[in-house]
Write a structure and sequence with these properties.
Number of domains: 3
Radius of gyration: 19 Å
Organism: Streptomyces antioxidans
CATH class of the largest domain: Mainly Alpha
GO cellular component, one term: cytoplasm
CATH superfamily of the largest domain: Hypothetical protein, domain 2
Protein name: 3-methyladenine DNA glycosylase
Keywords: DNA damage, DNA repair
Number of strands: 7
Largest sheet: 5 strands, antiparallel
GO molecular function, one term: alkylated DNA binding
């Protein structure tokens, strides 16, 4: 059975830009964009698996949902689209950021309310290329997830396993997906305390980050990448990233090779809004030319 909700955003809402941070690669089984431009998500909610279709209907946004988690997904539709975000708290301090901020009035920081859904793919992205991480996420969901409810089943969308399902994945299946023992062990430790981790959605940034980082293998980078999506934290700036410090340093100061310390110093005027500032910098397209070779794609299956 399909349930429906229509929501009228009070301000501009850029669906593609805002929801795009949830897609883990072009073949993500849990996120698709239909031929009609609608956005489809398959999620494991506290009420069970659900499928959500989001489409713009004039000035309104329509959500349709299927499965045991349908009502939960529709209840969270405004937050998912940035209704809890307060962009008025952001004051541009650089000419570049001011220009980008003006060009993207519909940018909002989304809130899924689901920690594990963002945490697991973020762990898969630790210290590997995006290609490797997206492939692992795709294969694990295809082999160990379940068909998404409703019409998404015909689209071959998948809902990720529940915590017990992740825990039951045998070692050779992680290996087959190209996931090394360090990352798979971190995921297994996380799913054992999934309920405690999900409590982080009601915490402030410091407490939520601390809760996630109690798990060995989850550091500042993974915690920030997760909380940006699950909690919509405007100050959850990503540290420990291979490229972001260099991009911020080049965009704001014209310097190359900036490290985390330099990046945080440059973002200090945006305290409380550093993640939003970083998003806008990335949208500017002002990035240094690549001088170092790209990280090599490794194949853990032969190791």
């Amino acid at each position: 059975m399909c349930v429906r909700r229509v929501w009228s955003p009070p301000d501009p809402c850029d669906l593609a830009r805002n929801l795009g941070v949830l897609q883990r690669g072009p073949g993500d089984p849990a996120f698709q964009i239909g031929a009609d431009g609608a956005f489809w998500r398959a999620s494991r909610t506290p009420a069970g698996p659900g499928t959500l279709r989001i489409a713009r209907e004039g000035t309104e946004i329509e959500g349709r949902a299927w499965g045991p988690g349908a009502e939960w997904l529709l209840a969270g539709l405004p937050a998912l689209l940035g209704a809890d975000d307060d962009p008025s708290a952001f004051v541009p301090r650089h000419r570049l950021i001011h220009a980008v901020h003006r060009r993207h009035p519909g940018l909002r920081l989304i809130r899924t309310g689901l920690v594990l859904e963002s945490l697991i793919p973020s762990i898969l992205e630790q210290k590997v290329t995006g290609i490797e991480a997206y492939r692992a996420w795709r294969l694990l969901l295809q082999r160990h997830g379940e068909p998404a409810p409703g019409p998404a089943e015909g689209m071959r969308m998948r809902v990720m396993p529940d915590p017990r399902g992740w825990a039951m994945i045998p070692s050779w299946e992680w290996h087959r997906a190209g996931v090394d023992a360090k990352r798979s062990s971190t995921i297994l430790r996380a799913v054992r305390v999934a309920r405690r981790l999900e409590e982080a959605t009601s915490m402030d940034l410091a407490a939520a980050s601390a809760r996630l980082r109690l798990i060995p293998g989850i550091g500042p980078w993974t915690a920030a990448e997760t909380l940006q999506r699950s909690n919509g934290m405007p100050d959850a700036v990503t540290v420990g990233d291979l490229h972001l410090p260099g991009i911020v340093g080049y965009a704001l100061a014209g310097v190359r090779g900036a490290d985390d310390e330099a990046m945080l110093e440059l973002l200090a005027p945006y305290a409380g809004q550093r993640y939003r500032a970083a998003r806008l910098i990335l949208l500017s397209g002002r990035v240094p030319s690549r001088r170092a070779p790209r990280m090599a794609v490794r194949d853990f299956r032969g190791m």
